[in-house]
Amino acid sequence: MQIIQTSESEVVAHLNKEVHDLHVSLYPAYFKEYHFETVNEFFKNAMTNPRFLFYIIKDEDQYLGYAWIELREYTENVFMRAYKSIFVHQLCISKRYQSRGLGSLLINKIDQIAKENGINKIELDFWADNKIAEQFYLKNGFKDYRRFVYRDHH
Protein backbone atom coordinates (compact mmCIF):
# COMPACT_ATOMS: atom_id res chain seq x y z
CA MET A 1 0.00 0.00 0.00
CA GLN A 2 1.27 3.44 -0.87
CA ILE A 3 0.23 7.09 -0.71
CA ILE A 4 1.26 8.95 -3.83
CA GLN A 5 0.72 12.40 -5.24
CA THR A 6 -1.43 12.28 -8.36
CA SER A 7 -2.52 14.38 -11.28
CA GLU A 8 -4.95 11.69 -12.49
CA SER A 9 -8.21 13.62 -12.34
CA GLU A 10 -10.23 10.57 -13.40
CA VAL A 11 -9.10 8.58 -10.36
CA VAL A 12 -9.98 11.40 -7.96
CA ALA A 13 -13.30 12.03 -9.73
CA HIS A 14 -14.28 8.36 -9.35
CA LEU A 15 -13.23 8.29 -5.68
CA ASN A 16 -15.17 11.53 -5.09
CA LYS A 17 -18.51 9.90 -5.98
CA GLU A 18 -19.08 8.34 -2.54
CA VAL A 19 -18.42 11.53 -0.57
CA HIS A 20 -20.42 13.58 -3.05
CA ASP A 21 -23.37 11.18 -2.86
CA LEU A 22 -23.22 11.43 0.94
CA HIS A 23 -23.39 15.23 0.70
CA VAL A 24 -26.33 14.99 -1.73
CA SER A 25 -28.19 12.73 0.73
CA LEU A 26 -27.48 15.03 3.70
CA TYR A 27 -28.07 18.35 1.91
CA PRO A 28 -30.09 17.87 -1.30
CA ALA A 29 -30.98 21.58 -1.40
CA TYR A 30 -27.28 22.45 -1.79
CA PHE A 31 -25.67 19.63 -3.73
CA LYS A 32 -26.26 18.63 -7.34
CA GLU A 33 -26.36 14.99 -8.39
CA TYR A 34 -22.94 13.52 -9.15
CA HIS A 35 -21.94 13.69 -12.82
CA PHE A 36 -18.56 12.09 -13.60
CA GLU A 37 -17.62 14.22 -16.63
CA THR A 38 -18.33 17.50 -14.82
CA VAL A 39 -16.54 16.42 -11.65
CA ASN A 40 -13.57 15.13 -13.66
CA GLU A 41 -13.31 18.45 -15.52
CA PHE A 42 -13.42 20.30 -12.18
CA PHE A 43 -10.56 18.22 -10.75
CA LYS A 44 -8.57 18.45 -13.99
CA ASN A 45 -8.71 22.26 -13.73
CA ALA A 46 -7.98 22.23 -9.97
CA MET A 47 -4.86 20.15 -10.58
CA THR A 48 -3.35 23.00 -12.61
CA ASN A 49 -3.24 25.16 -9.44
CA PRO A 50 0.21 24.73 -7.84
CA ARG A 51 -1.24 25.34 -4.34
CA PHE A 52 -3.53 22.29 -4.66
CA LEU A 53 -2.05 18.85 -4.06
CA PHE A 54 -3.86 15.53 -4.52
CA TYR A 55 -2.83 12.27 -2.88
CA ILE A 56 -4.29 8.82 -3.38
CA ILE A 57 -3.97 5.64 -1.36
CA LYS A 58 -3.24 2.81 -3.74
CA ASP A 59 -2.91 -0.92 -3.07
CA GLU A 60 -1.55 -2.60 -6.18
CA ASP A 61 -4.09 -1.44 -8.81
CA GLN A 62 -6.90 -0.62 -6.34
CA TYR A 63 -7.57 3.01 -5.40
CA LEU A 64 -8.75 3.17 -1.78
CA GLY A 65 -9.12 6.89 -1.08
CA TYR A 66 -7.75 10.37 -1.62
CA ALA A 67 -6.99 13.73 -0.06
CA TRP A 68 -7.20 17.14 -1.73
CA ILE A 69 -5.15 19.70 0.16
CA GLU A 70 -4.16 23.32 -0.34
CA LEU A 71 -1.02 25.10 0.84
CA ARG A 72 -2.26 28.44 2.19
CA GLU A 73 -0.46 31.59 3.29
CA TYR A 74 -2.44 34.14 5.25
CA THR A 75 -0.92 37.61 5.20
CA GLU A 76 -0.82 39.78 8.27
CA ASN A 77 -3.50 42.42 8.51
CA VAL A 78 -4.72 44.88 11.10
CA PHE A 79 -6.56 42.10 12.97
CA MET A 80 -4.53 38.93 12.52
CA ARG A 81 -0.95 37.74 12.36
CA ALA A 82 0.39 36.06 9.23
CA TYR A 83 0.47 32.27 9.20
CA LYS A 84 0.67 29.28 6.88
CA SER A 85 -1.62 26.28 6.88
CA ILE A 86 -2.57 23.23 4.95
CA PHE A 87 -6.30 23.30 4.23
CA VAL A 88 -7.89 19.89 3.65
CA HIS A 89 -10.61 20.41 1.05
CA GLN A 90 -11.58 16.74 0.88
CA LEU A 91 -10.48 13.49 2.46
CA CYS A 92 -12.30 10.33 1.46
CA ILE A 93 -11.84 6.61 1.95
CA SER A 94 -14.05 4.30 -0.15
CA LYS A 95 -16.75 2.69 1.99
CA ARG A 96 -15.47 -0.83 1.56
CA TYR A 97 -12.04 0.21 2.93
CA GLN A 98 -13.20 2.37 5.86
CA SER A 99 -12.37 1.56 9.50
CA ARG A 100 -8.95 0.19 8.55
CA GLY A 101 -6.85 3.22 9.55
CA LEU A 102 -6.46 4.49 5.99
CA GLY A 103 -7.87 7.95 6.76
CA SER A 104 -5.36 8.27 9.59
CA LEU A 105 -2.61 7.29 7.15
CA LEU A 106 -3.69 10.19 4.92
CA ILE A 107 -3.68 12.54 7.93
CA ASN A 108 -0.15 11.34 8.76
CA LYS A 109 0.91 12.08 5.17
CA ILE A 110 -0.58 15.58 5.46
CA ASP A 111 1.33 16.04 8.75
CA GLN A 112 4.53 15.04 6.94
CA ILE A 113 3.85 17.53 4.12
CA ALA A 114 3.18 20.25 6.70
CA LYS A 115 6.46 19.51 8.48
CA GLU A 116 8.42 19.50 5.18
CA ASN A 117 6.95 22.94 4.36
CA GLY A 118 7.44 24.48 7.81
CA ILE A 119 3.68 24.61 8.41
CA ASN A 120 2.28 24.17 11.92
CA LYS A 121 -1.46 24.24 11.27
CA ILE A 122 -3.78 21.90 9.37
CA GLU A 123 -7.28 23.26 8.83
CA LEU A 124 -10.47 21.81 7.40
CA ASP A 125 -14.20 22.02 7.56
CA PHE A 126 -16.99 19.50 7.18
CA TRP A 127 -20.76 19.53 7.00
CA ALA A 128 -22.35 19.48 10.46
CA ASP A 129 -24.58 16.46 9.76
CA ASN A 130 -21.62 14.33 8.64
CA LYS A 131 -21.15 12.61 12.01
CA ILE A 132 -18.68 10.09 10.60
CA ALA A 133 -16.36 12.93 9.54
CA GLU A 134 -16.80 14.65 12.90
CA GLN A 135 -15.85 11.50 14.84
CA PHE A 136 -12.89 10.84 12.55
CA TYR A 137 -11.43 14.34 12.85
CA LEU A 138 -11.92 14.50 16.63
CA LYS A 139 -10.22 11.10 16.95
CA ASN A 140 -7.30 12.49 14.92
CA GLY A 141 -6.79 15.50 17.20
CA PHE A 142 -8.72 18.23 15.38
CA LYS A 143 -10.67 20.77 17.42
CA ASP A 144 -12.97 23.73 16.79
CA TYR A 145 -11.57 27.22 16.79
CA ARG A 146 -14.15 28.85 14.58
CA ARG A 147 -17.76 28.03 13.64
CA PHE A 148 -19.62 28.75 10.41
CA VAL A 149 -23.31 29.25 11.07
CA TYR A 150 -26.26 30.33 8.96
CA ARG A 151 -29.86 31.40 9.17
CA ASP A 152 -32.37 31.31 6.33
CA HIS A 153 -34.11 34.62 5.68
CA HIS A 154 -37.90 34.34 5.85
TrEMBL record:
Q: Which residues cross the membrane?
A: none
Q: Does the keyword Oxidoreductase apply?
A: no
Query: Which residue windows are coiled coil?
Result: none
> Domain N-acetyltransferase: where?
10-154
Q: PROSITE patterns, per this entry?
A: GNAT
- Assigned keywords, A-Z: Acyltransferase, Transferase
The record, for Pfam families, names: Acetyltransf_1
The record's section on CDD domains has: NAT_SF (cd04301)
Q: Does the record bear Acyltransferase in its keywords?
A: yes
A molecular function GO annotation: acyltransferase activity, transferring groups other than amino-acyl groups
Known PANTHER family for this protein?
Answer: ACETYLTRANSFERASE (PTHR43420), N-ACETYLTRANSFERASE DOMAIN-CONTAINING PROTEIN (PTHR43420:SF47)
Question: Which named protein is this?
Answer: GNAT family N-acetyltransferase
